[in-house]
Amino acid sequence: MPSIESSLDRFLLQVEKPGRYVGGEYNSVVKDWREIDIKVALAFPDVYDLGMSNLGIMNLYNQVNLQPDMLAERVFSPWLDMEAVMRRADIPLYSLETKHAIRDFDLLGISLPYEQLYTNALNLLDLAGMPVLSRERDERHPLVIAGGHACYNPEPMADFIDAFVIGEGEEIIVEIAQLIGRMRGQSRDAQLREIARIQGMYVPRFYDVEYHDDGTIRSVLPNTPDLPARVLKRIVVTLPKPFTKFIVPNIDTVHNRAPIEIMRGCTRGCRFCHAGMVTRPVRERPVAEIMAAIDEIVRHTGFEEISLLSLSSSDYAWVEQLAEEVNREYKDAGLSLSLPSLRIESASADLLEKIGGTRRSGFTFAPEAATEKMRDLINKYVPDDQVIQTAREVYSRGWRTIKFYFMIGHPEETLEDVQAIVDLCLRTLNEGTKILGKKATLNVGVSTFIPKPHTPFQWVPQDTRASVNAKLALLKRQLRRGGMHLRWNNFDDSEFEGWLSRGDRRLGRVIRRAWELGCKFDAWQDQHRHDLWLRAFEECHLDPDFYNDRERGLDEVFPWDHIDAALRKKFLLDDYLMSIRRETRVDCRDKCFACGILPKFAKERSNTEDLAWECPPVTPISQRRASQQDTIPLSAIG
């Protein structure tokens, strides 16, 4: 049988973008396969162009390859043309670094940052020549684990994944690989029983689900006596040093820039935001560490744009100092600095001035809503005048483009609330036109709100098709003018994401049937086949409306309640009830609301949840910025 590499030589010129499939990129890590004991394949179940822009998989790649007895190699989903070639020529899914078949690895780690990747994950397993069902794989196959934000509700994929990483993966990936190395040759069941004892690991086969007659969950309980009733997420206490030796891709990628995570977690408490809830507590990198990372990136990669990542970059305590130092060091080097997640109320004129020293690009802000009622409801209050003032500051400093993100479909939203989005956008562009004339542009992105697990809105129904389409029609009709560009997602995509976000274990049958019917690349609007998903629901005798269209009872057991994101369910429920009363919470840097993260962080697993406790005092961000210190005690930023 010809080697994978020789087979590729014969077929690669038949496909679009062959650079996706050849490897050999600058900074990729190639170890001697024969000399390394433990072999890990890291998969991003979408095309190379997207996966190569994912910081999470690069962090894991680095952590594993730092171990002398381990190697990590990458694999991405082949595009449709390459998949057809591989199936026709019987080429199994392979790693980019050494072209070994994925089924020859000890461990396959699949990144699932969002739910639309589920059918691709099944397709990836099938292309690797492995059974898609976990129960049909044994110790002769690689152990299949999955991690990422979608795994905070692992149940829809429970039939296919051997074990889920709940929480942060930089440390746990090495622990799992070491365990698999020690237990090589033992039964898969024995391996999984040991893995289930690692904090942050969830093994679905050891938990049984019972349902009420109405389809809601009665209980999810361990069927093995020594396992916890709730799986506590894994938290990395101190962020590892930033990854800097980024692999330089063979082709243009979606984000052709080098990202640095400057801060993890968020204290703002936006009620719709899944990431802001599950990534607590806040941890920030020192400025010196970030500057050293930028220097290494510039020297080792040649990227001309550095993206400073966090959920709220302008809330980073030393963001102005950082911008000033980057400006001073790289002002004449043509380096572009981007802060893709700025809060309008914390993006000061001084910060804009300092960022302006680097090569200019656009600014992105996310008001999310445009009326006082809706901003109070979602706990993201920013006055219109502050939005306009920030826009004025941006345009007056020479930036031509501002991008706004809004959501429609929030609870209690009306057409009047959507009309306010139009009014705010027109006012903003008018400010830009006064300053820059026709050069000023405003890009408006509108998405449909999807209630997510582990958020205060996990109890609410998703907005209906008729309501969302009416709101989109209003926006499309009134945001047509020069300098304004509107982008939106259609209702089918939102409905689909809603099913998978709050689905239970029964949804696995639907996912598998949809894949068998031909569904894959569901995140691509031109590839998503909504009709086939509806057919899969029908054939599996499940009602899709059950997952999206009903309000949950306040005492309902959710499919993810046995997954402990270190947030008290009572805290989330109280916040939901506050939203109904249109009451807001301040930034928890200024007042601790006992969400649950600090005691869970202090102890791996205890009865803390049932004990009275008090958060350590927090330091307001304004005071912290005045400090010259470069480190902050974790307990002070809960």
Topology:
Layout: H1 4-11, E1 38-44, H2 48-51, H3 55-65, E2 70-76, H4 80-89, E3 107-111, H5 118-127, E4 143-147, E5 163-165, H6 172-182, H7 188-195, E6 201-202, E7 207-211, E8 217-222, E9 231-232, E10 258-261, E11 263-264, H8 274-278, E12 283-284, H9 287-301, E13 305-309, H10 319-330, E14 336-338, H11 349-355, E15 363-368, H12 372-378, H13 384-396, E16 401-408, H14 415-436, E17 441-448, H15 465-478, E18 484-488, H16 491-501, H17 507-516, H18 530-539, H19 545-548, E19 563-564, H20 569-580, H21 597-602, H22 621-626
Parallel strand pairs: 1-2, 1-3, 3-4, 4-5, 9-19, 10-13, 13-14, 15-16, 16-17, 17-18
Antiparallel strand pairs: 5-6, 7-8, 11-12
Helix pairs in contact: 5-17, 10-11, 13-14, 14-15, 17-18
N- and C-termini, Cα separation = 58 Å
The CATH H-level homologous superfamily of the domain at 4-232: Cobalamin-binding domain
**Helix count, DSSP H or I runs of 4 or more residues:** 22
Estimated helix fraction: 25-40%
* CATH level 3 topology of the domain at 4-232: Rossmann fold
| Named CATH architecture of the domain at 4-232 | 3-Layer(aba) Sandwich
Which regions are unreliable across 5 or more consecutive residues at pLDDT < 50?
604-638
Number of E strands? 19
Spatial strand arrangement across the major sheet: 2-1-3-4-5-6
Shape: globular
